[in-house]
Amino acid sequence: MHKTPPLARRAATVLVALLLAAAAAVTTGAPSAPAATQATSTSTPSPQAPTDPPAVDNDFPVTREGAYGDNRYTVFRPTDPQAAGHPLPVLAFGNGACAHTDNSEVTQALTFIASKGFVVVDTGSADGSSNGVPSGRPIPSLLTDAITWAEQEQNRPDSPLSQQLDLTRVATAGHSCGGLEALVAAQDDRVSAVVSLNSGFFEDGSLGYPRSELQKLHTPVMFMDGGSADTAYANSQANYGLVTVPAVLASQPQAGHVGFITGSQLAEGMTAAVSFLDMVLNGNETARDYILDPGGLASQAPWTVAAKNF
């Protein structure tokens, strides 16, 4: 009788043992990847924080009034400061021609901004009466003093703005000569954004401020001009090129020098300005897309928009 060699018998025995062990593992082992299956079936996505509507969607009734205790200023504010549901950002504004008494030219534009949930402190007395401040040349301290006035109102018990302001969200803005005031005042540490409307420093330092002032900016800035018909067009374009902070250059060639303030481009111009402030001060993503995305303001002919350092 033929006998199986001992080595073969041992190999066969080992093979049978391995097969039995494998069979036992298949029969008694847990289903593959049970933890992954369980995690997939029971995990719940974290809720996404809701996106606040953009400020331009607001339409609050506005009160225009003289600044309490200081006839250098007129205040434009939501009539009910609590209607927004949160403390309001502050905008200190300088008028065209550095008009420090009469601000009637900008009343419609600043009413628009205030209706979107901002408190605007503008140079000039509410009734246009003399307030002792000379006009015609930039006085940037008027805008920083306007911020100080807002700080005082925040803590005045009888003020309608008492504890209704967010003084961590402060901006300056201005038109033409007032834009120079805004750009200089924006060097103040309390300021977080600045809008220059049809303005910019002159190459020769006219009106007392050279273009080197731009290097002192520490906040995002928006330059808006009305195209080649705008007397400030060259300054606006050149100033944008010189700044090193985050910057936007928005041009609407039909606006000329005053279209954003008094002309037919007022609504679209102020919408752009408010959206920039909403993006920078409030961190609103919809406003950010409108300003920086090619499908936003830049897609609305004849606007052209450039941006850098964001």
In short:
The chain has 310 residues and is of the alpha/beta class. It is built from eight helices and nine strands. The longest helix is centred in the first third of the chain and has 23 residues, at 6-28.
What would you note in describing this structure?
This protein has 310 residues and is an alpha/beta fold. The chain has one domain (55-308): Alpha/Beta hydrolase fold, catalytic domain (Rossmann fold, 3-Layer(aba) Sandwich). Helix content is 32%, strand content 17%. The chain contains 8 helices and 9 strands. It has helices at residues 6-28, 34-42, 107-115, 141-154, 177-185, 233-242, 266-282, 285-292, and strands at residues 62-66, 73-78, 88-94, 119-123, 165-175, 193-197, 221-225, 247-251, 304-308. It has a 9-stranded mixed β-sheet with strand order 1-2-4-3-5-6-7-8-9, sandwiched between helices. Helix 7 crosses helix 8. The longest helix has 23 residues, at 6-28. The radius of gyration is 32 Å and the shape is globular. 41% of the residues are buried. Mean pLDDT is 88; it is low at 1-50.
